[in-house]
Amino acid sequence: MQQWARGVFAAVSTAFLVACGGGGPAADPPIADGAGASQVAALRQVPQRAARTVDATALMDWAEGVYRDYFPSHEPNQVLGPYVYRAYANGIYLGVADGVVYVMGLLSPGIDRVGTIADFACYVYPENCPVISGVAAKGLLAGATVGVYNLNGDGTRGGLLASAVTAADGRFSVTLPAPPAGPVLVEASGGTYSSAYNGAAIASQTTVSAMLATVSAAGESGISVNPLTDMAASLTRTYLARGDGLAPAVELAENWVAWQYGLRSRPSRIVPVFDVASVTSNPEGVQLALVLAALDTLGSRLSAANPDAIFGALSADFSDAVFDGWTMSGQPVTLNGSALPAGAGSTEFMKAFAVSFSGTSSGLRPAYLDAHFSRGTIVENYQAEIIPVYVAQEVAGYFPARYTSPVPNTTALDTRATGYTCPAGVPMTFTNGVGSCGAYYYCTGGATLITVNGREACSDGSIAVYQSATIAPYTAQSIAPYTAQTIETYQAQTVIAQPAAGTPAIFRASAVHLLTAEELAAMAAADRAAGDAAAARVSSLGLPTPLQLEWMQRINDAVIASVRW
């Protein structure tokens, strides 16, 4: 405290005041520094509250309350020439002349000047101070330190102005000692957040920041500090390096990042809302929350040991305004010591988005984006506008069957009852006296058959196997059915390994079925109907942006690649 006081207060002339006899009490003087008063008044241009005027009396009252070791008692104002001052029994004097603050006897026997009354306006009346408030989020960052810094001309961080710690919901409020002279950097570091991927508490190891080109006299509210604003800050530094002005560089970078994710507002002005009920009243807040959750999922998928590292890696990747795995300086971006995939911010992000909001543990099916979403979820209500995805075919490839050689014809006695039989639950019909089993779908691996969007599916996310109508086996009373040959269990030409936990399911056939022309036509018709339905959902919300159209193609490519893999 003493060191700070010596840096803030300078001594009023002991010789001057003592020689003049101390003087008598005087009424509170008017504001000595008109410019300082104007500056203070401008701090709180808020209709509900006017700024309080800081004069010599208010300043000295504040000093007596805060620094009792130096100003131990409440003394009356005295006037001598231009000075309004107070004298204390310990030989220290505090005074103001022409809006300038002085002390004597604290640091030296002479007069030391500290600054103007305006410099102390926010200390005397904190409500006069500009406040920067908002939310820091990856998920909601709790216990993070939010610092407000001067922003240098090249976009680097300058001196610290003030800081605060976020609440459990990520909200912060930083009171500045005075209106900043120029742009500021708001930076959040440390703290923890809950992973949208698995619910684990993650310690935030990478900082996220937002650049503010201007700060009003009253401050700024509703500021959002998140990974998207950090990407924008990284891109802003690139624009500054080529000679752009700071204000247009900040605006251009934020708008470019917003466009990448289909946001209509700048990310620093969208507070993420992790609340399903707000999808109608605050769609952009919910959309930003969806994007942040998908980025967290991306980090868990690409860097399970340190998922938080994805945020810093993507900010570095976007320094050249494109997600390509390279910085603006031509250096490869690393993620925990390994090269960041070139498509981490685009194709891999889309996969992470799908996995993050799938209703099954194995991931999203490659067709019909909302197939596994329960009614009322965020994605079911808003998915078409966020990422309108149309996948043309559910199965991208077919593999020929492989058979064994025929075995000799055999007959054998059979004591089973005579009659036709069909699998349990499959209806039997008779045509010309011959029993037939109807067509049906079934699931393997213990999964149950369900209906999703009018289509047959399996509860574990796999594709239901279609069995066409067959002739019911007939069991004679004494002779077993004639056996011409046996067929080996079907094997696909390509062997696909079991996917790791948390990765999208890979779908493959589990039984032989040669599709008829009618079945192929039915599948194509169903695909067209699903595509039309998806297009109708998108059309009702407006045409997709060029970037969203590009992402539709990317997700199609990614899906086709996943089933051909």
Automatic annotation (TrEMBL):
Domain of life of the source: Bacteria
PROSITE patterns tied to this protein: PROKAR_LIPOPROTEIN (PS51257)
Name of the protein in its database record: Lipoprotein
Natural source organism: Ramlibacter lithotrophicus
